[in-house]
Automatic annotation (TrEMBL):
GO cellular component term, pick one: cytoplasm
Chain segments annotated as transmembrane: none
Keyword Ligase annotated: yes
Organism, as annotated: marine metagenome
UniProtKB keywords: Ligase
GO process annotations (BP): NAD+ biosynthetic process
Keyword ATP-binding listed: no
An example molecular function term from Gene Ontology annotations: NAD+ synthase (glutamine-hydrolyzing) activity
Entry protein name: NAD/GMP synthase domain-containing protein
Length: 182
């Protein structure tokens, strides 16, 4: 089973022919923000009477997302994914409106600015959207040969049904639209 989720696959945040080439992508249709929500809900609702389990689940949620399998010798996490590629809550927002509705970057940025009012300014949204679009287009070759996986929500990047895109597609038109954002 492959553990990569929709958020990681959209950004190409997987090892080609490693975790990316499993027999079945069990989380391929689930964005990272939904996984976090479900863990939090499970901790607070299903395990509300079991503080030890609740504590472990909240500890998992409070641990920065990282591809590191082992902690540094001093126990710290050296590579924090969101510091490198941006907040998953923004990327999942971009994915929903870009893939599900085909919205242009300027429109997505405007929606994002209002949805996250006060949390991210327009410059941060623009910067992380540039990272998103660049990664999305550069890593299409990884998505063209994804293993089967469930379609959980309305947004999917399965090359067998929902998302067809040439591996050498260019992000130029979307990046040009992005530059219209002040």
């Amino acid at each position: 089973l492959g553990t990569g989720d929709l958020s990681e696959l959209v950004l190409g945040w997987c090892t080609m022919f490693g975790d990316h080439a499993s027999h079945y992508g069990i989380n391929a249709g689930v964005p990272k923000t939904l996984i976090s929500y479900l863990i939090r809900w499970t901790a607070d609702v299903e395990f509300k009477e079991e503080p030890d389990v609740r504590h472990v689940l909240h500890d998992i949620l409070n641990t920065p997302i990282s591809p590191e399998l082992l902690p540094h010798f001093q126990g710290e996490i050296l590579q924090k994914t969101e510091e490198k590629i941006g907040p998953y809550e923004l990327h999942d927002f971009f994915t929903y409106y870009f893939i599900r509705f085909g919205f242009a970057p300027t429109r997505i940025a405007r929606l994002c600015f209002h949805a996250f009012e006060g949390k991210y300014d327009l410059a941060a949204i623009k910067s992380w959207m540039r990272e998103y679009l660049t990664r999305f287009f550069k890593t299409q070759l990884k998505r063209s040969c994804l293993p089967d996986g469930p379609k959980v929500g309305m947004t999917s990047i399965s090359p067998r049904g929902d998302w067809r895109m040439p591996s050498d597609a260019s992000a130029a038109a979307w990046l040009k639209d992005l530059e219209k954002i002040p």
